[in-house]
């Protein structure tokens, strides 16, 4: 066998955890498929704490060791075989995913209850629990995969898991939204695959660690990177490839919307970051980075303005996702090219990833809150929200907290993320991005206020609700919103875990 | 001996190819579906048959030869069935037999 | 010029054709067809890379060949899901297009691809 | 040598011509027919590129099963063709897209003409490790040993695609039978074919699976033939798709991936890693995986073509 061990060193002892993180939900999907719908919910409920436990174990493992976990599949070393690798960023994303999936699962129990024994299998619960686990497995495979083709398969699982969640209710609008989503996603994956093929042709390996050591700035590499980036942008729904997102995310059931908006789009974003900062560090030219950030800025402005004009709560939140995705791309010109501006780049990079994580908690909370409000009122028209704040105070409070995090009001995860990006922009002398961040925050305040203003006014008499809202579901939503705020209270140094195992990083310290 | 077999192969495959060519010309030039079908099935039958026949001396042993013959038989079977189905579909009475 | 180069150029052209069809066609089924055509071009380019990696007595590098086989199966799964969606949409609405049935406020512009 | 090159160039031109026609032709049904011939031509290209495993897969899945799926869909969508034809895209969009596509093609063509020398390859590594797998076909070794994790995940893709297709059923029809019921014809040519061919097809399918260990072929190609036999029987009206709720059907569908996963997990105990095979037992274990896998893939492919449940049981 050729001497090809990844430069991080040999497989780590607790590397089997990485296998479990993916295999557990995969086994859940297969089991619930075989055992029929009655067991689907039970299987998911058993796997949720187990998966959360594995994610926590991986996170603490990376944290304690201070270096990434590595597992070689089947004992075949890359480049011939495949490896799983968890660096600090993967560990953080794994944990975020586990928390949001578990919250979404607990939240969804009320709507997707398994049929009683003796009753026939019902479609919606069977399908929902299966795809929830599938999305989880796919996200974990995306975060842990260390081979570009294996990541392609993981991305496809993610797409195939996410699309049917969009049209779970089978209405014509959601079917059309799902189809449009699928077509965008397929275009994205085929471009990604093309880039992968070109990279294999140039380097004879698709292993990320090996590639990062071999990569050169030649034509094939740059064309491959461009194709893969465009493909992943279509899946991430960055402006102007965002057209599929609002109807898809707004049409899904609340728990599914939360997972789609909080996590699924981050899967492809994560790969863009992997590509530019791990696979080919230093190859991102300032020009390309400025273009990415300009698209991000356009997404922030465009998404926010459209969010301001929506009549329906779920569409408003979906357009807010379009805008918040834009922030993620501001990190590229600020974090690219380490060298002398090491601090700025580490800060911007941390800010970008923190934005991804805090947005995940905040957006999941907001979609679930919207789901509760819709259930209580029987509609989600913003004009008809009057008095809901008095009837469902906990839910509206959670929605507001999530909104504060999106706006970047201290103390919240969103604030720290945007602050890091802002200081990096000023450090780097790219003040125009600072303007975008500030303007985006004001827009966000505008559309959050548009919801809170009617919700907090209105008649003193309690509203008559269409359906009762369970306290524990309100508590779940509040817990997620609080998590997105609490991220802002952590000492800045604790985000150092995100740097563990980065390939070719600038040696900067986070102040 | 082997030269004679090679010559046989070349001749048989060439004639087979000629039948395919004729069939294709028929497909393009004949006026309606039924006559086109006629041209096409003839090409299938004879053309492929001759090609297989020509290849038989070159086959690797008995199993290889058997495989070649079964390919011809399967193509025949499929061609005949499809021709039937198409003919029924274009008949004025519609697809029902 | 070798066979690999000829088919490589063919694959490059197929990618362009497929992209064009995927964007320009408005019928979803035609988009799905174009996606498959584009996929064929991508696989072909990958296959040319495999062919150029011929060594150790093999006609091509087996690793990309295996990846292509996996890719073909994944593309088929995607096609099946997309076709099922188109047919279901047709059952619900009597139409099989994406243009006019976006929800209110979604602001679909002309370029839905 | 130049004659071979001329044939290759002719084949490439033919592929491009059929592809252009598929994109340009007005009628959807005609476009699908074009696509099927495109797939068959591509299979020939794969043979010319000495990738027989890929050629078999392309002919069986890329052209064959995909073709059946698309033809059936185009036939059902015929009533919409007139309305859709009215929605012609604007000239400006066509023009801009054409330019962009041409740029992409030109860039890729330039990369094809500027190859890296020597081309990197894993062929030596794949061959050097073959003895450890007990296999003779290095493509099968990549699929089921070196990169078995990819293949396992891809099985999950197939199961999810089927679950996704089923999930589109209306609630009331959940648990029903997929696809339309084809009327039984008593003496049609199709019935004759559907009675005669399946025994042969099953033998060929099993042969493909078996021979895949050492020569071109394998679980996919074999299972596609099995699936095709099943589709033929259903279309001739001789059999019907089973209701999607049946326990045995679910078990058949996941048996392959389950066994694969179980063997993979047993690697923790009996070999050094997940998806590793103990020394000397690689080939029997790979066959243990491939047999149920072939059955599961065949069932999945057939049901993916059949579509979501449409009729109450």
Describe the protein in words.
The complex is a heterotetramer of chains A (511), B (97), C (113) and D (313). With 511 residues, chain A is mostly helical. Chain A has a domain at 290-511. Chain A contains 18 helices and two strands. Chain A has helices spanning 16-35, 37-65, 88-108, 123-144, 148-166, 172-203, 208-214, 219-236, 245-251, 254-279, 286-308, 313-335, 342-377, 388-391, 393-407, 413-427, 431-456, 471-486, and strands at residues 69-72, 83-86. In chain A, helix 13 packs antiparallel against helix 15. The longest helix of chain A is centred in the C-terminal third of the chain and has 36 residues, at 342-377. With 97 residues, chain B is an all-alpha fold. In chain B, helix 1 (2-29) runs antiparallel to helix 2 (33-55) and helix 2 (33-55) runs antiparallel to helix 3. Chain C has helices at residues 3-24, 28-52, 62-93. The N and C termini of chain C lie far apart (37 Å). Chain C has one domain (3-93): Helix Hairpins. In chain C, 77% of the residues are buried. Chain C has three helices and no strands. Chain D has a two-stranded antiparallel sheet. Chain D folds into two domains: 1-79, no CATH class; 128-313, no CATH class. The mean pLDDT of chain D is 89. By secondary structure, chain D is mainly α. Chain D is built from 13 helices and two strands. Chain D has helices at residues 2-24, 28-48, 52-76, 81-86, 91-113, 123-128, 130-133, 138-146, 148-166, 189-211, 219-235, 247-270, 282-306, and strands spanning 177-178, 309-311. Classes of the chains: A mainly alpha (511), B mainly alpha (97), C mainly alpha (113), D mainly alpha (313). Chains C and D meet through helix 1, helix 2 and helix 3 of C and helix 1, helix 2, helix 3, helix 5 and helix 6 of D.
Keywords:
heterotetramer, A: about 500 residues, mainly alpha, two-stranded antiparallel ribbon, 18 helices, 2 strands, about 0% strand, globular, disordered N terminus, disordered C terminus, B: about 100 residues
Task: Give a brief outline of the structure.
With 511 residues, chain A is mainly alpha-helical. Chain A is 70% helix and 2% strand.
Mean pLDDT of chain B: 83
Low-confidence stretches of chain B: none
Number of helices of chain C: 3
Question: How many beta-strand elements of chain C?
Answer: 0
Strand content of chain B: under 5%
Number of domains of chain B: 1
């Amino acid at each position: 066998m050729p001497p090809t061990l990844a430069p991080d060193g040999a497989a780590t002892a607790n590397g089997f955890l990485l296998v479990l993180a993916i295999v557990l939900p995969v086994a859940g999907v297969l089991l619930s498929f075989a055992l029929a719908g009655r067991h689907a919910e039970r299987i998911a409920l058993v796997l949720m704490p187990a998966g959360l436990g594995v994610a926590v174990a991986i996170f603490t493992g990376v944290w304690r060791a201070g270096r990434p976990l590595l597992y070689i599949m089947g004992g075949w070393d890359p480049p011939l075989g495949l490896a799983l690798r968890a660096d600090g960023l993967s560990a953080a994303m794994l944990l975020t995913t586990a928390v949001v999936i578990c919250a979404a699962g607990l939240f969804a129990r009320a709507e997707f209850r398994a049929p009683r024994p003796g009753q026939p299998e019902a479609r919606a619960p069977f399908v929902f629990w299966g795809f929830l686990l599938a999305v989880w497995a796919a996200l974990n495979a995306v975060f842990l995969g260390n081979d570009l083709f294996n990541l392609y398969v993981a991305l496809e699982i993610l797409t195939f898991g996410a699309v049917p969640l969009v049209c779970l209710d089978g209405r014509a609008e959601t079917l059309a939204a799902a189809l449009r989503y699928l077509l965008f996603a397929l275009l994205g994956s085929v471009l990604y695959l093309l880039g992968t093929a070109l990279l294999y042709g140039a380097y004879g390996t698709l292993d990320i660690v090996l590639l990062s050591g071999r990569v050169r700035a030649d034509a094939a590499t740059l064309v491959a990177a461009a194709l893969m980036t465009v493909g992943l942008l279509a899946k991430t729904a960055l402006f102007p490839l965002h057209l599929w997102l609002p109807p898809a995310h707004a049409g899904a059931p609340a728990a599914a919307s939360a997972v789609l908006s909080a996590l699924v789009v981050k899967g492809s974003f994560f790969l863009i970051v992997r590509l530019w900062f791990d696979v080919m560090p230093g190859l991102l030219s300032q020009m390309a980075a400025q273009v990415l950030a300009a698209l991000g800025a356009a997404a922030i402005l465009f998404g926010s303005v459209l969010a301001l004009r929506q009549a329906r709560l779920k569409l408003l939140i979906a357009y807010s996702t379009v805008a918040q995705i834009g922030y993620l791309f501001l990190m590229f010109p600020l974090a690219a090219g380490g060298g002398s501006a090491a601090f700025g780049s580490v800060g911007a990079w941390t800010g970008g990833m923190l934005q991804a994580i805090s947005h995940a908690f905040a957006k999941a909370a907001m979609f679930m809150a919207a789901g509760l409000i819709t259930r209580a009122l029987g509609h989600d028209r913003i004009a008809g929200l009057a008095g809901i704040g008095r009837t469902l105070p906990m839910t509206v409070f959670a929605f507001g907290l999530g909104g504060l995090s999106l706006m970047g009001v201290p103390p919240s995860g969103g604030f720290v993320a945007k602050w890091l990006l802002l200081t990096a922009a000023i450090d780097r002398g790219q003040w125009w991005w600072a303007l975008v961040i500030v303007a985006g925050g004001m827009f966000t305040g505008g559309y959050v206020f548009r919801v809170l203003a009617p919700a907090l006014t209105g008649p003193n008499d309690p509203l008559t609700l269409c359906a009762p809202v369970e306290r524990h579901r309100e508590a779940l939503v509040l817990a997620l919103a609080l998590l997105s705020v609490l991220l802002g209270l952590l000492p800045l140094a604790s985000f150092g875990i995100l740097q563990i195992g980065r390939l070719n990083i600038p040696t900067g310290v986070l102040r | 001996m082997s030269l004679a077999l090679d010559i046989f192969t070349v001749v048989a495959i060439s004639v087979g190819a000629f039948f395919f060519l004729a069939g294709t010309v028929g497909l393009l030039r004949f006026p309606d579906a039924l006559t086109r079908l006629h041209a096409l099935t003839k090409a299938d039958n004879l053309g492929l048959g001759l090609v297989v026949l020509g290849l038989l001396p070159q086959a690797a042993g008995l199993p290889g030869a058997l495989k070649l013959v079964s390919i011809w038989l399967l193509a025949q079977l499929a061609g005949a069935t499809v021709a039937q189905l198409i003919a029924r579909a274009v008949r004025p009475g519609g697809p029902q037999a | 010029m070798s066979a690999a180069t000829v088919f490589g150029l063919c694959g490059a052209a197929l990618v362009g054709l497929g992209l064009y069809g995927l964007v320009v066609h408005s019928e979803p089924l035609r988009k799905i067809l174009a996606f498959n055509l584009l996929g064929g071009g991508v696989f072909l380019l990958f296959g040319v890379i495999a062919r150029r990696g011929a060594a150790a007595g093999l006609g091509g590098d087996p690793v990309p060949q295996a990846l292509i086989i996996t890719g073909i199966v994944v593309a088929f799964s995607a096609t099946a899901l997309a076709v099922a969606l188109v047919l279901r949409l047709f059952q619900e609405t009597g139409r099989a297009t994406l243009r006019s049935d976006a929800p209110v406020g979604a602001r679909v512009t002309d370029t839905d691809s | 040598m130049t004659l071979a090159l001329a044939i290759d160039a002719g084949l490439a031109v033919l592929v491009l011509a059929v592809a252009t026609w598929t994109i340009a032709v007005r009628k959807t049904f005609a476009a699908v027919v074009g696509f099927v011939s495109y797939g068959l031509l591509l299979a020939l290209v794969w043979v010319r590129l000495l990738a027989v495993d890929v050629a078999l897969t392309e002919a069986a899945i890329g052209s064959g099963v995909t073709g059946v799926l698309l033809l059936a869909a185009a036939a059902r969508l015929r009533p919409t063709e007139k309305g859709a034809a009215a929605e012609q895209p604007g000239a400006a969009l066509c023009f801009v897209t054409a330019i962009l596509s041409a740029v992409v093609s030109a860039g890729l063509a330039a990369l094809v003409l500027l190859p890296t020398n020597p081309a990197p390859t894993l062929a030596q590594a794949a061959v050097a490790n073959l003895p450890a797998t007990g296999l003779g076909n290095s493509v099968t070794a990549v699929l089921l040993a070196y990169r078995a994790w990819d293949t396992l995940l891809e099985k999950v893709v197939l199961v999810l695609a089927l679950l996704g297709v089923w999930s589109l059923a209306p609630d009331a029809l959940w648990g029903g039978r997929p696809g339309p019921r084809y009327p039984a014809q008593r003496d049609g040519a199709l019935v004759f074919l559907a009675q005669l061919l399946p025994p042969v097809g099953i033998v060929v399918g099993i042969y493909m699976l078996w021979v895949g260990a050492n020569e071109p072929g394998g679980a996919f190609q074999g299972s596609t033939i099995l699936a095709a036999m099943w589709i033929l029987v259903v279309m001739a009206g001789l059999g019907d798709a089973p209701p999607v709720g049946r326990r045995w059907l679910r078990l058949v569908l996941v048996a392959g991936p389950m066994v694969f996963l179980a063997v993979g997990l047993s690697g923790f105990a009996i070999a050094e890693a997940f998806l590793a095979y103990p020394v000397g037992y690689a080939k029997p274990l790979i066959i243990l995986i491939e047999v149920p896998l072939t059955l599961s893939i065949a069932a999945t492919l057939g049901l993916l073509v059949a579509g979501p449940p449409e009729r109450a049981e």
